[in-house]
Amino acid sequence: MAGAIPHSVLFCCDHNAIRSPMAEGMMKKFYGRSAYVQSAGVKNDMEIDGFAIAVCDEIGVELARHRSRSFEEMQAWGDDLGSFDLVVALSPASQRQALELTRVAHLDVEYWPIMDPSGLAEGREAKLALYRGVRDQIRNRMIERFGPPTES
Questions:
Q1: Is the full-model pTM beyond 0.90?
Q2: In the 3-class helix/strand/coil scheme, how is the chain assigned residue by residue?
Q3: Separation in Å, CA 108 to CA 6, 79, 137
Q4: Alpha carbons 10 and 18: distance in angstroms, whole number
Q5: Is the dihedral of CA 55, 61, 65, 66 positive or negative?
Q6: What is the side-by-side order of every strand in the sheet holding 108-111?
Q7: Most CB atoms within 10 A, among 8, 14, 44, 128?
Q8: Which of left, alpha, beta for 149 (phi over 0: left; psi -120 to 50: alpha)?
Q9: Can you tell me the distance from the alpha carbon of 141 to that of 137, in angstroms, rounded to the nearest whole number?
Q10: Could you read off the pLDDT tens digit of each residue along the chain, which spans 152 residues?
Q11: First vs last C-alpha separation in the chain
């Protein structure tokens, strides 16, 4: 059942290198300026993943300029987690961190279990197929949650 699009959404995962940047990019493309969208990781120890860039390019979502950042960096840069209407955690660790950081704030944390595709396949084609599966899983969950894209 699709709900209204929140004014602000934070997607989070472990490293802000694959899943959450994909979700951030797709949300911005599909729903335009109807929501303020950011992403973060529990840690910021990886650059944006090349396979994530490649499979998002296939659907017109540009990720090459994404800069990975952690929850701590977000807060240091003045993005208060409590100001987001919805936090979507894409990994168990990010769900725990989001719940921990939002204990004092009244905001919704949703958990969308999306597997981490890194290191699960050998060879370029197998990796691309795996990343496409992750991309499509996020896209389907997003459309299910927020309704059909309002922008093309």
A1: yes
A2: CCCCCCCEEEEEECCCCCHHHHHHHHHHHHHHHHCEEEEEECCCCCCCCHHHHHHHHCCCCCCCCCCCCEHHHHHHCCCCHHHCCEEEECCHHHHHHHHHHCCCCCCEEEECCCCCCCCCCCCHHHHHHHHHHHHHHHHHHHHHHHCCCCCC
A3: 10, 17, 21
A4: 14
A5: negative
A6: 36-41, 8-13, 86-89, 108-111
A7: 14
A8: beta
A9: 6
A10: 567 889 999 999 999 999 999 999 999 999 998 889 999 999 988 889 999 999 999 999 999 999 899 988 888 877 777 788 899 999 999 999 888 877 777 778 999 999 999 887 889 999 999 999 999 999 999 999 999 998 76
A11: 21
Backbone angles phi and psi of 10, in degrees to 5: -115, 120
**Phi and psi of 109, rounded to 5°?**
-115, 120
Crossing angle between the packed helical segments 19-31 and 50-57, to the nearest 10 degrees: 20
The alpha carbon of residue 60 and the mean position of all alpha carbons in its chain are separated, in whole angstroms, by 16
In the numeric block, which tokens belong to residue 46?
Answer: 């990886």
At residue 9's C-alpha, the angle toward residues 54 and 95, to 5°, is: 85
Tokens of 148: 């059909």
